[in-house]
Sequence to fold (151 residues):
Amino acid sequence: MFYGSFTVFPHNVVMNKRTAITNKKSAARMTSGKNAEAAAAAHLETNGYNIIARNLRLGHLEIDLLATLPNTNLLILIEVKARRAGTHAPELRVDWRKQRHLVLAAQMLLARRMFRGKQIQFDVVAVEMDQLQMPQSLRHIVRAFDANLKF
Fold:
């Protein structure tokens, strides 16, 4: 139902037009992100990685994919970035702020008993999406950046 500048949705949720449009864009971005993360996880598993967590929340921090490699002491934090094909490279979006957040998340993980003694590696998977929000190409950047973590 439409009342003036507000739309009334079922369950008594009231939103204005701008919020409804923003939510549609956010939903499309979430779908794109989920598709990119699924493609990244499938690619990594095909290449021998063991995905041990997806969208791992540590307080206000999030790790897209957490993985290990068989016969190594590595704990790999993987950031997945997606963009439409033809725009700037998605991996360029992993700026110093995102790197700092990933380093903080790694420190939190290393403080846990089950991860003590592990070596940390930060990877980035860049996914270019087509018009239908499906993965078109994928680049895995191993050791995308380094942090001096000592535990």
